[in-house]
Amino acid sequence: MTDATLENAPDAFIRRETLEQQPAPLSVAGPLAWVRTKLFSGPLASLLTLVSLYIVIVAVQDLVKFYILDAVWTGTSREACLADKVGRPVGACWPYVADRIQYFIYGSYPIAERWRVNTVFAMFALGVVWLLWSLAPLKKVGAFFFFVILPLSGFILLLGGARAEWVLNTLLWITLALAVVYAVVSFVPSLALWASTPIRLAEAENPPLARFVQGKMLVLLALLVFGAIEVFSERIGLPRVDTGLWGGMTVTFLISAVGIVFSLPLGVVLALGRRSKLPIIQLMSVIFIEFVRGVPLITVLFMANTMLPLFVPQEYSPDRLLRPLIGVALFASAYMAEVIRGGLQAIPKGQFEGAMSLGLGYWQMMRLIILPQAIRIVIPGIVNTFIGLFKDTTLVSIVGIFDFLNTVQATLVDPTWATPTTRTTGYAFAAIFYFVCCWGMSRYSISVEKRMAAGQRR
Amino acid sequence: MSSIPEKTVSPGKASLFYDPKIRGYFYQILLVAVVGFLIWSAASNVIENLRAQKIASGFGFWHNAAGFDVNQKLIPFTASGSTYGQAFFVGLLNTLLVAALGIVFATVIGFAVGVARLSNNWIIAKLAMIYVEIIRNIPLLLQLFFWYNAVLKPLPDARNSISLPGGIYLNNRGIIMPTPQFGAAFEFVLVALLIAIAAAIAFFVWSRHQQASTGRQYPNGWIALGLVVGLPLLVFFIAGRPLAFEYPQQGRFNLTGGVQVFPEFVALLVGLSTYTAGFIAEVVRAGILAVSRGQTEAAHALGLRSGPTLKLVVVPQAMRVIIPPLTSQYLNLVKNSSLAVAIGYPDLTQVFMGTVLNQTGQAVEMVSITMGVYLTISLVTSFAMNIYNKRMALVER
Question: Which residues of B touch A412 (CB under 8 A)?
């Protein structure tokens, strides 16, 4: 075979310069090709596309007609939403939602005291943003705020009355005492050295005083918040608001907040217990987790409602709202434990061995090396569990607590706004509320997942 | 012991206080003591409180007359003549009925939606996505209220029932369907069905054997379908069609005759199946995505067409990923069926933790019986799941 090169190929046409780049032909790129491959790739696909297009158009048309075009937007009573009074077909009755929105948010909480609920809402939002926003500084202080300060001040502000005042005063004394201790320790460095925890390695790096900065911040923050509440309660007064009056989104958020605040630490303990080498601790953790995960939440709520009062002496019978709170917290902690256990299992053995070889004890190893990594891995799982918990808060309506869904249900049987479309409007409003909350949280968990996967991308 | 000099004690020996073993014992004893104390004090309080409130304890109530009626019952039950024990079985059967049907429907819808989300067809994929997002982000209880109160309750009353083809009527009391009336010869059809199933299994075994030894393949699916459907149908016609329907009659005020399917049941079934289907769809999608593209390409490279590739390569591997979370979704469905109590479907929770508990006040017994049932279902399923997982898990070194 002779060499076929440029020189000895007599009749060949050989292009010597590169062609200009051409756009891809219309049949493989561009909108037309997209329609062809993604919508009408074959007879069956075309049929499916047309049928679903038809369904979409009809459904969207109906929804828009009912909830926007035909909907009533203004009005003061049910008359505005009755078709024969208005003289046209009537869709959703939005004035009903506008009229009842206060009830949906606060339940029967006294109007004059609602600023307390708003304050707790604001603190809750601050805590959530602090913890969840990846760029926020001082995460540990934020965690302290969310898991310690928020529940305590929430309790004081929402409940009020003599008991709350007693708690507030006690807390103020404790924080003041701590502040004094820290002040003394800061000014007497040798004391600080003596009081510091026995991590000698870290000590060599950091001057002893620097390690007190965080502690001081926690105390300062606590002092600030509790002091502010004290000032408010002195000025305005915090009369007691019975839990029977609480309701609406307040209770929904309260139950989910209590659920997350208590279930996370409990879940960590249970997860550690389940992975413990001590047989009895492991057995008890497994029994608790599997028992709770094996029964429906409703039965747990019924149990909390009917059996908790039997478990304690009658004079300590728990509050009607406290019972489902305990039930929900215990229920959520079992699920949280399984999520965190997943994180613990994902930590390579080398991390444990490395920590042990540095001479760390069990709790130091867990607190400083393992848990920070494990919990970071399972943040999406924690958020997903929390979404489940948030949806499950609706079940407390079955044991007679007026959560958001139950307040909506309650207004539906109220004759003031009884119209044929009230029910659909109320349910749509509730659905939008839950959807926005849950969907937002799931977006957040996806974004965290992506951020964590960024390190894996090459 | 005194003969041993003190010096031989190893110098590095820590004090008992730092011995991890001793500490372990200490913590465990402490835990047992704390839990034991909690249980003891709770138990003594329960006894005290029950005595104070004059509530009986023990399971003697089981044989007491129930005194309430249940609308949907699969076994005979009357207010006057039945006991709490029978009420338990009525509730349990209702739970199992709605759970079993719910699992079937949820699986069908869930697999369809899950596959649709991966469809090449843009609009189908988006619709499936919208379905999943909406269903998963709205509480089940709200969905049940919607189905029950906003869809089924506003249906016309019995006098203006909506008539559907096949003699089915729809009104606010539920769905009224014709009652099937089986002739004497209908037994033959059932026998034929059993024979057909047995024959299909036998054929399946034989064809696998054939394939293993000779490599020949048979259309197992079609033959099995033909047997299971065809044989009973044939016998049905030979036996002279021993099946008649008694159609509900539209009376002046009400419908008479027919089988009534209660709206509570329909709402619960629809709500549970559509809700769980949303989760199953995600499980299915994740399972299919978990099979790497290389597997499909390798199968094509071996000369398998897309049908066998799916059947022999993709689905078996996807199922390994799908089945464990699928089971937990089934369990969730069973547990969620207890939401029946919110719309008044007489399931186990509603009958036992609702009505019976209110009547007898024996909280401890009712709660433990009801929880015990759900716990048994869960534990048995997860036990079976563990065995399955062990069999299916990839064999590694």
Answer: 149
State how many domains chain B has.
3
Question: So what's the ipTM on this one?
Answer: 0.85
Residue burial A27-51, b: 16+ Cβ < 10 Å; e: rest: eeeeeeeeeeebbeeeeebeebbee
Chain A CB within 8 Å of residue B94 CB: no
Considering the domain architecture, whether residues B113 and B20 belong to the same structural domain is answered as no
Q: Rounded to whole angstroms, how far apart are CA atoms A198 and A444?
A: 38
pLDDT of B105 above 70: yes
* B30 CB within 8 Å of a chain A CB: no
Question: Does any domain span residue B354?
Answer: yes
Rounded Cα–Cα distance for residues A282 and A287 (Å): 9
Is position A339 within any domain?
yes
With a pLDDT cut of 70, the percent of chain B lying above it is 94
Which residue of A295, A413, A443 to mutate against B (max B Cβ within 10 Å)? A295
Q: Domain for residue A438, yes or no? A: yes
| A:B CB pairs within 8 Å | 150
Chain B residues in contact with A314 by the CB 8 A cut-off are: 49, 52
Q: Give the pLDDT confidence of B208-233 residue by residue, as tens digits.
A: 888 888 888 888 888 888 888 888 88
> What is the model's pLDDT at position A295?
93
Mean pLDDT of chain B: 85
Higher pLDDT, B58 or A22: A22
pLDDT of A201 reads: 45
Residue B363 lies in a domain: yes
- Backbone phi, psi, residue B260, to 5°: -100, 125
In terms of residue numbers, what domain contains A63? 48-104+415-447
- Judge if A84 and A205 occupy the same domain: no
**Is residue B145 a part of any domain in this protein?**
no
Does residue B359 sit in the same domain as residue B286?
A: yes
The string of pLDDT tens digits covering residues B130-158 is 999 999 999 999 999 999 988 888 888 87
- How many percent of chain B have pLDDT more than 90? 31
Cα–Cα distances in angstroms (integers) from residue A153 to residues A3, A120, A218, in the given order: 90, 8, 15
Give the model confidence (pLDDT) of B292-315 as tens digits.
Answer: 889 989 999 999 988 888 888 888
**Shortest distance, CA B204 to any CA of chain A (angstroms):** 32
Residue B107: which domain range? 84-133+268-392
Instruction: Give the whole-angstrom CA distance, residue A193 versus residue A199.
Output: 11
Ranges of residues in chain A whose predicted pLDDT is under 50: 1, 199-204
With beta carbons less than 8 A apart as the criterion, state whether A285 and A311 touch: no
Spatial CA neighbour of A425 closest among A410, A446, A408: A408
Helix, strand, coil shares of chain A, percent, nearest 5, are 75, 0, 20
Q: How many domains does chain A have?
A: 3
Q: Return residues 33-62 of A near B (CB < 8 Å).
A: 34, 37-39, 41, 45, 48-49, 52-53, 55-56
pLDDT band at B1 (very low <50, low <70, confident <90, very high): very low
Specify if A4 maps to a domain: no
What CATH number has the domain bearing residue A373? 1.10.3720.10
Q: What span, in angstroms and rounded, lies between the C-alpha atoms of B283 and B166?
A: 36
CB B375 within 8 A of CB B335: no
Predicted structure pTM score? 0.85
Q: Same structural domain for residues B383 and B289?
A: yes
**A128/A168 same-domain check:** yes
Q: Does A430 touch chain B (CB under 8 A)?
A: yes
* Buried-state track A295-308, b at ≥16 Cβ within 10 A, e below 16: bbbbbbbbbbbbbb
Residue B238 shares a structural domain with residue B272: no
- Residue at A298 is within a domain: yes
